[in-house]
Design goal:
A hairpin with a 4-residue loop joins β2 and β3. The chain has 261 residues and is α/β, with parallel strands linked by helices. The protein is 42% helix and 19% strand. It binds zinc ion (ZN). The site of zinc ion (ZN) has 5 residues, from loops.
């Protein structure tokens, strides 16, 4: 899935961009990236967060903004802690799109450990989002068991509310398979769809020498643009290569944002 950028001409002029910046700060989405505030808007068609005036604001601040997102966790405490340490080293904020099954003692034996990790992630200033209760393909759920769809989406938000005291504001469908009905449920539950624009090869089960080489090449050569949303997982691969990627992004002038509404 690619991140659609708004091409509304009204945001191109600097004066309008500044106006939009302050308006957006109160009415819509802003990215908070240390001293930089980047404006984004909700694309009603994609029901997603999209950049509005990235290039204009970037030229004003001379900084580029990227969003780091981590899916499917927390399920690997050792890796989660390693990733948190790398993010801290780079002063990077991020968003973690979690599966509620990882936090549910009825489904996951080490759910209590994962809950602690989730608290640590949140306490470190990262945003927690909803990535579905079981990580089911929502198109299949809708076809085979439609009454379950609400539980997969709104049910996970309710679960997060119960254990964290607040509901997530962002939803990302497992594998990016967002049906119309799923989008409606997510929207009714107060969430905005969070797409991604670039993936990292970080979920390979087998790490043969060839795959290892290909993955390192992919990470090293990944071209990141202003406004990109990168998709990671809390895997060994990410632990191995995240630091060098962020070191490169630091050198390229990026700051790391999180969305807020
Ligand atoms: Zn996923």
């Amino acid at each position: 899935m690619s991140l659609k950028r708004s091409d509304r001409s009204g945001f191109i002029a600097t004066s309008l961009a500044v106006m939009a910046f302050f308006t957006a700060a109160f009415t819509c989405c802003i990215w908070q990236a240390r001293s930089v505030k980047q404006t984004y808007a909700i694309d009603p068609e994609a029901r997603a967060i999209v950049a509005t005036n990235t290039s204009t604001l970037s030229s004003m601040f001379s900084r580029k903004v990227v969003l780091l997102s981590f899916d499917d966790g927390p399920e690997n405490t050792r890796n989660d802690h390693a990733i948190l340490a790398i993010l801290k080293k780079h002063g990077a904020q991020s968003i973690w799109m979690v599966n509620c099954k990882n936090l549910d003692p009825g489904l996951t034996p080490n759910a209590a450990v994962n809950r602690n990790t989730l608290s640590e992630i949140a306490q470190a200033g990262h945003v927690i989002g909803n990535h579905g209760y079981h990580h089911y393909n929502l198109q299949n759920v809708e076809r085979d068991n439609p009454e379950q769809l609400k539980n997969e989406i709104a049910g996970c938000s309710d679960y997060l509310q119960a254990i964290r005291g607040e509901k997530p504001k962002y939803f990302r469908a497992p594998w990016g398979v967002l049906t119309e009905a799923s989008a409606d449920i997510a929207q009714s539950a107060g969430m905005t769809n969070l797409p991604w624009s670039r993936t990292l090869i970080d979920t390979l089960k087998k790490d043969s020498p060839e795959m290892n080489k290909a993955s390192i090449k992919h990470w090293n050569e990944l071209k990141v643009d202003d406004g990109d949303i990168l998709l990671f997982h809390d895997t060994d691969r990410t632990v191995k290569q995240l630091d060098s990627l962020l070191t490169r992004l630091d050198k390229e002038g990026f700051v790391y944002g999180v969305p807020s509404v």
